[in-house]
Amino acid sequence: MATELHETISMAKQERHKNLFLNYRNLNKFPVELLKDEGLQFLERLYMKRNSLTTLPDNLAQKLPNLIELYLHSNNIVIIPEAIGNLARLQSLDLSNNALQFLCPEIGRLKSLRHLRLSNNQLKCLPPEIGDLQDLETLDVSRNQLVSLPDRLHRCTSLQNLTADHNLLSHVPRQLCWLHRLNQLSMAANRLTFLPLDLGRSRELQFVFVDNNVDLKGLPSYLYNKVIGCSGCGVSAQVFVGEALGEALGEALGDALGEALVGLPAEVKVLGSETDNVVPLEEIAMRTLHCIYQQRPTNLNLLPPITLPKSLLDLLQFPLGHCHRCSQTMFTIIYPKLFPLRDTALAGVHRRTTVSFVAYCCSSRCLRTFDLQG
């Protein structure tokens, strides 16, 4: 086996191969032949799937500087060296089916990276620096132990496909709704109880899969005309009414709507109804400030400080959502309207679920006039 490996690498050096296949070689160390002398300066694609590697050499980028694709699927890799960030040309990195417990921040230096696959590892968190990957198109972090996703993930402005199935996620950062190129979002088999108000508002987002989140009972009405997967959602027998805003609100809204609103963001201070004709002053002030900021071609962080707490300043930059009827921005109040899926045209498609679509409106007028199919 060692002789065959040596011959394969020697031939690759002599013939200046751009692709090198070292899959199924039972390697427990990175081959030193790849790192001798000047290495393989011309190599662009390295396949080392289904070996027994536990780490990567620190001088990988020095010896293989032109790597575009690196496939390390199904090894025993526990840690990735910080030097991984020196692979300036790397576009595809597959670390699926390994034993990673930690991902170094230097991953954010891979400015050319377009595809990152980290499924079936032991990751409990992702570094914020992953948000620096502005060319990233595909991110697969399924089958890990993630309890949250980085807020800075919205800076991956090229992201088209995000897969985070089979984790421990309890919420979806609303900042993800600002990923205007995102086409497919899959977060099946997590612990989700609530989805961002604006999820599905982007025309580009066409596929949303949240199957087997048993406590998830409400879907934003924006998802009504999308391809969705919600099998096994809302089947939990646990009663949540009133958990978000108190028992009194649960009784006023009704059990079904109360359960659909479990997990509402803490910024929601008021739930409006058809009889509430006056919008609270704080909400009016926030909408006015947002209009002022929208008219100025300046980053919010560069504006003169004003006497608002940081939480509200952050809210100005990333509002709760937009009215599902008129697109008015919303900050501290929502007017929800429930549409049980079983009563819609999709009832025959989605059978094993008890979820409802929820329209989030900005006023009692929009609430009264909203039509799910209009």
UniProtKB/TrEMBL annotation:
InterPro entries: Leu-rich_rpt, Leu-rich_rpt_typical-subtyp, LRR_dom_sf, LRR_domain-containing, LRR_R13L4/SHOC2-like. Residues 106-190 form the Disease resistance R13L4/SHOC-2-like LRR domain. It comes from the Eukaryota. SMART domains: LRR_BAC, LRR_TYP. It holds the Pfam family LRR_14. Keywords: Leucine-rich repeat, Repeat. GO terms for cellular component: cytoplasm. This is Disease resistance R13L4/SHOC-2-like LRR domain-containing protein. It comes from Perca fluviatilis (European perch).
